[in-house]
Amino acid sequence: GTAARANSDSFKVVLLGEGAVGKTSVVLSYVEGKFNEKHTTTLQASFLTKKLSLGGRRVTLAIWDTAGQERFHALGPIYYRESHGACLIYDVTDEDSFQKVKNWVRELRKMLGSEICLVICGNKIDLAKDRVVELSTALAYADSVGARHFETSAKTGEGIEEVFLFLSQQMLRVR
Ligand code: GDP
Ligand code: MG
């Protein structure tokens, strides 16, 4: 009924980032609570849903993961259209993947304006000794584009809940 609907919000969240940064691993960690070194990059479900409760509001996230098209530079507006939020992921051991995040931020701001809530995730922080992207650099960049930055590991689960919790709160605020 109306009361139920008024207390329930659904949001589309897209995962973006270079191939192999851990997008699929992050969503599987969040929604299914598992990490598998060897999951295949081929056709995972196009989206997974996650329900959460936030201060008495029920929130349903439809989290869209790519089927690997980013590897062929074939990820266009059809994928991210009508998104309420985006999680831009890079691999802290891969400088180039951090640069790619900047391209996505530019494209999303150009195509969707300030409507879309953005979070940036430096993933694979469990590989600390191989880290090349400095946290201070990433924080300064995120700040400059008005996005929150999180450090995550799909392998240990660190930071993952916080990402989607923050994004949900922000999406509720701007809705
Ligand atoms: P996608 O192409 O962005 O979807 O990346 P995947 O989720 O397929 O991950 C690519 C590879 O990185 C896989 O071998 C994952 O097991 C690995 N991986 C993903 N996240 C992490 C992480 O947080 N830590 C570590 N050590 N490996 C990760
Ligand atoms: Mg993937």
TrEMBL record:
It comes from Amphibalanus amphitrite (Striped barnacle). Belongs to the small GTPase superfamily. Rab family. GO terms for biological process: protein transport; Rab protein signal transduction. Keywords: GTP-binding, Lipoprotein, Membrane, Nucleotide-binding, Prenylation, Protein transport, Transport. The chain holds residues 6 to 180 of 214 of the full protein. GO terms for cellular component: endomembrane system. This is Ras-related protein Rab-21. It is found in: Endomembrane system. GO terms for molecular function: GTP binding; GTPase activity. Its main location: membrane. It is a lipid-anchor.
